[in-house]
UniProtKB/TrEMBL annotation:
Signal peptide: none annotated. It comes from Lophium mytilinum. PANTHER family: FLAVIN-BINDING MONOOXYGENASE-RELATED, L-ORNITHINE N(5)-MONOOXYGENASE-RELATED. This is FAD/NAD(P)-binding domain-containing protein. It comes from the Eukaryota. SUPFAM superfamilies: FAD/NAD(P)-binding domain (SSF51905). Belongs to the FAD-binding monooxygenase family.
Length: 585
């Protein structure tokens, strides 16, 4: 087994002789260079001094799911005018809902611009990590991948901080249906799409009705001889445009629209104009939460709009609306943005099957009643392992407990970021991190800000470890339950968000909006954590150092707290005169 030189114990022996803001060196290892890993790779080096950051990524490039998923029709559910970083604004989107490849390109541009590539080791697959109590460090094992399997070797690295940026869905799975090896046609999972395969003129089956399934089917429907779509249960389908439908309708369009060249040029040359446009779109998205609150007029209106739109769109095929209409309320499970899917489904060459699949056969798919449908290709849009604990890549915390054991029967992470018994470990886009309204990019930045504050606390106060208390983690879940009880999410429906338990607790939803999450992360409750210090007993405040700041000790600018910013108020002669007049009266 090879090894990367481990991080040394970075604890200066003389903290009392150092300036209060002369931060000790610290190392962080980040697992994954998808959206959350890119967020960490951009933000941490800008905010944390003396930081060594290493990102391990199994793929050849950044992007995570956006790098891996390139099936026909892939695109963001949210318009990228809101689904982009606040610190990296792109005014050049070709369409309101552009293709997935365009968004992947954006992520690569951001990663290049902010130096993420320089900090990332590609083709390094995370295997395991364990907390070394005596050293206050994480020992991480990765597999360096190589085209020549024989030359692949395991490597070890160490760091004070471990950041999981592995996403909610990164371990794709074929459906657990008998006979997969018997099928002699082409079987493809959407997460491993074969770009060389041409579906034109083929008899195709699509299995799965999440966001992926309803994107790929309408993309291939005009090309194929026939397409059968298999769904297991009913589900509500949102109309065109989702939460930003108002903007699409204002443009006189139904589903999407191109941004004219002159508009792109205006957005590019006038940043304030584009910011105003982004704020307009994000404001529309931020307003969605009201429609999820139980027994409200807003929810009644949302339900009525979606039901009426589904009924009208599916009307050309008798019985399809009744097959797809759920008993549960709109919003109990994640809404699918599937207007194009419904319109494709009512075409002559498309058929809906709401049934289980008994097994795969040599020719195709056998139904429970024994009917066999023959296919040239079967496309599996059947999702991912959604346990979130990544049990096949174990992480061992205090006392050797694994994350899978800690998260049995369900994952619990304080504010979605920290886990009891796992010191100095943080995660972006962890359990209960997805807001019900607003931009996930905004929440990633907020969670990353929380991680940054935690690392700075470790650095400045010479802490060996910081770990959330079990009590605080339980209080967090109590808050999740309290908020959920007021929403239609608490209704009776099966969804992987609830681990397919009809009345289960959502393991995905943040208890509120993106704005709510950002504010919750902005001011950490340090009393919710437990600490170990490198400083001796009775010297817990020795981190305050020699009474000076770094600039005083090294003769640099000591007035950096005085700055002229856009927010600064410049007092005018009129201001002073107004007060003088008041005083003389």
């Amino acid at each position: 087994m090879g090894s990367i030189p481990p991080s040394e114990l970075r604890v200066p022996s003389n903290p009392g002789e150092r300036a209060i803001n002369d931060y000790r060196p610290i190392k962080a290892i980040c697992i994954g260079a998808g959206m959350s890993g890119i967020t960490a790779g951009c933000m941490l080096p800008q905010k944390i001094p003396n930081l060594e950051l290493v990102i391990y990524e199994k793929n050849d490039d950044v992007g995570g799911g956006w790098y891996e998923n390139h099936y026909p029709g892939v695109q963001p559910d949210l318009t990228p005018h809101t689904y982009q970083y606040t610190f990296a604004s792109n005014p050049r989107w070709s369409r309101f809902y552009p293709p997935g490849r365009e968004f992947e390109h954006y992520l690569k541009v951001v990663a290049k611009r902010f130096g993420v590539y320089d900090r990332t080791k590609f083709r390094h697959k995370f295997l395991t990590a364990r907390w070394i109590e005596d050293d206050g460090q994480w020992e991480v094992e990765v597999l360096r991948l190589d085209d020549n399997v024989v030359s692949q070797i395991n490597l070890q690295d160490r760091a004070e901080v471990l950041i999981r940026c592995m996403g909610l869905v990164n371990d794709w799975r074929f459906p657990d249906i008998p006979g997969r090896q018997d099928y002699q046609g082409k079987m493809i999972h959407t997460a491993r799409w074969d770009d060389s395969y041409d579906v034109t003129g083929k008899r195709v089956a699509v299995i799965g009705y999440g966001a992926t399934g309803v994107q790929i089917m309408p993309a291939i429907q005009p090309l194929v001889k026939s397409v059968d779509h298999y769904v297991r249960g009913p589900f509500w389908i949102a109309p065109a445009g989702g939460t930003a439908m108002e903007e699409i309708l204002e443009r006189g369009e139904r589903l999407n629209f191109d941004h004219p060249a002159e508009e792109i040029e205006k957005f590019s040359e006038k940043p304030l104009t584009y910011l105003t446009y982004r704020k307009k779109i994000e404001h529309l998205c931020n307003g969605y939460q009201a429609g999820l609150m139980r027994d409200t007029e807003a929810h009644a209106q949302l339900h009525a709009i979606i039901e009426a739109n589904m009924k009208a769109t599916l009307a050309p095929k008798e019985g399809y609306f009744e097959l797809l209409k759920p008993e549960y309320e709109v919003g109990c499970r994640r809404l699918v943005m599937g207007q194009r899917w419904m319109e494709a489904l009512v075409q002559p060459n498309a058929t809906l099957f709401k049934c289980d699949i008994a097994r795969f056969t040599k020719e195709g798919i056998e139904h429970p009643d024994g009917t066999i449908r023959e296919y040239d290709a079967i496309i599996c849009a059947t999702g991912f392992d959604t346990k979130l604990d990544n049990a096949n890549t174990p992480i061992l915390g205090q006392g050797g407990i694994t994350l899978a054991e800690q998260w049995d029967p369900e994952p619990v992470a304080y504010l979605s970021v920290a886990v009891p018994k796992f010191p100095n470990m943080f995660q972006l886009f962890g359990p209960n991190s997805a807001p019900v309204a607003g931009s996930i990019c905004h929440t990633m930045e907020g969670a990353c800000g929380f991680v940054i504050k935690s690392i700075l606390k470790l650095q400045q106060e010479y802490l060996k470890s910081i770990v959330v208390s079990p009590r605080a983690a339980q209080d967090w879940m109590n808050q999740v339950d309290y908020w959920t009880s007021k929403t239609v999410i608490s209704g009776t429906c099966r969804t992987w968000f609830k681990r397919n338990i009809e009345k289960g607790r959502s393991i995905i939803n943040w208890p509120g909006s993106a704005m709510h999450a950002y504010r919750a992360w902005s001011n950490p409750r340090w009393e919710d954590f437990e600490y170990e210090s490198w400083l001796p007993e009775g010297q817990s405040l020795r981190w305050m150092g020699n009474g000076m700041t770094y600039s005083e000790q090294h003769g640099t600018d000591t007035t950096d707290y005085m700055s002229f910013t856009d927010e600064a108020t410049v007092l005018t002669e009129e201001d002073f005169k107004a007060v003088e007049d008041k005083l003389t009266k």
